[in-house]
Amino acid sequence: MARTEARPPAETEARDSVARAEQSLYASVLAIRDRNELERLGIAFYDAETTLQWSYNADAVFHAASTMKLAVLLAVFRQYTRGELALDEPVHVRNKFISIHDRRPYMLDISHDTEGEVYERLGRTMSVERLAYHMITSSSNFATNLLVDVVGVPVIQTALAEMKIDGIEVLRGVEDQAAFDAGLNNEVTANGLLKLLRLVAEGRAYGEEASARMREILLDQRFKSGIPAGLPPAARVAHKSGNISTVHHDAGIVYLEGRRPYVLVVLTQFPSEAGLTTAVADVSRDIYECLAGMNGG
Amino acid sequence: MAETDLESGLKIVDGFDLDPDLRALLRPGELVEGIGGQYHHLPRYFYEIPSHEAARDIRLTPHFGLNEFLLVDLKEAARVRAFPRYVPCAIRIVAFYLERVREATGAPVHLAVNGGYRSPAHKLSVAATPHMWGTAADVYRIGTVVLRDRASIETYNRVIEDLTDDIYVMPYGHEIGKADDHIHVDLGYVTVVPREISEDRLEGPQDRPRVAFEERRRGDRRGWPREPLPEVFPAAAHAGSDEPGSRK
User: Fold this and answer.
1) Which residues contact B228 (CB under 8 A, 6 or more apart)?
2) In a domain, A6, yes or no
């Protein structure tokens, strides 16, 4: 007969609390999925304060949309850390790129409205760091493609492999229609993005200095309809969203006063006729409330 | 740059006397293959540009500064981007022709980044392009017109082609050998040996590096009196030629 050890009441209570929180989250997430008529939903979450890790459909593969820019950012700082790229190096701002599929040139459909400062520099140069900033904070496709050109897709893949990040696959730059038509797409899983952001949050993405600089850029994110929309105004979020006609994602590190940060990734896919939903913000709110409840707040 | 420095003229160096790292990047005199299978010798004689300030202040023509031909991004080797920088002596000639283009179009001519001199180590130097000779220029804007469509590029291409047969103008198009977001002009594989430097050298580093200083060619810079030209020359033909240092 197996002998069971008696657990201290406090530990048992904590385990029960976590179990209740998980059950509650699960029910809530299903409700959000149904209410928003999502085709698919993927969530991954890790809280450095409680070490609670929770996920839903976290290995499901989604179109990456602009969350792939996190992998480009990682690769830029890999090259920087290795001394192969200085952040103040000038890059020619030129709207001409080569398809990875058929090597034919293509141009992005850009304007001042979509690209702001990067568009204004057309024909001149911008520094690597400034491009990285715009790639993340205003989700500039132009800056992204310029940086993909600078570091190269193989280096992006190497960076992901070095960091042992499964679940993020970057094959091409943005708006490479020939590659898209050939089925070459950038894809992510919630677990993959969670791993990447945990490394950044914990100072393990090519060291504390590189991680800190990445966090600074991510904290300046201008699009706040995802994770931040479900949080109190005082929360700071270092994050990157991703939107196309059928997906709305957000992946970020959430900083709340008086506690260690948590990392949350929410990936959603919906029918093209449905339009943008509030599902990401809803999940973010539920996670926050769940944690607040566990902390007695 | 002080006027006295300008008066001393540009320093000319033999590429074979450069340090081994630079020589490996600039490959002076080396034979390289072009896209069409022709071979050409890379330039051997370079102007030495000591500083960013010098590049900014040295005018090759009334409207073109030397710095415009040195504007590159990280596709150029870092060592080549560091001062002192070296640019083939033929750069003067392309500047001269661009000045003619400016006159013909009646508007400032803007060179693109990576649109002037590119060393053989530049990532866009995949074959013997005249950019490696300093005899090519990529123009991305003329006046307020940004050149990124067929109409604007072909219109200005025609204006430039009508100027002289010396200039090759790349046709509009998306394929290799065509241009769709700039105007490419070049003079072919022209090399220049300034009169001040001697060519009696072996093609290897020497005990004493040989340099020369180019004379300032223009009479007014050599102290000739600025008097009205003789009546035999129509005054209008020289209008504007006595405005050194004016900027576009």
Assistant:
1) B235
2) no
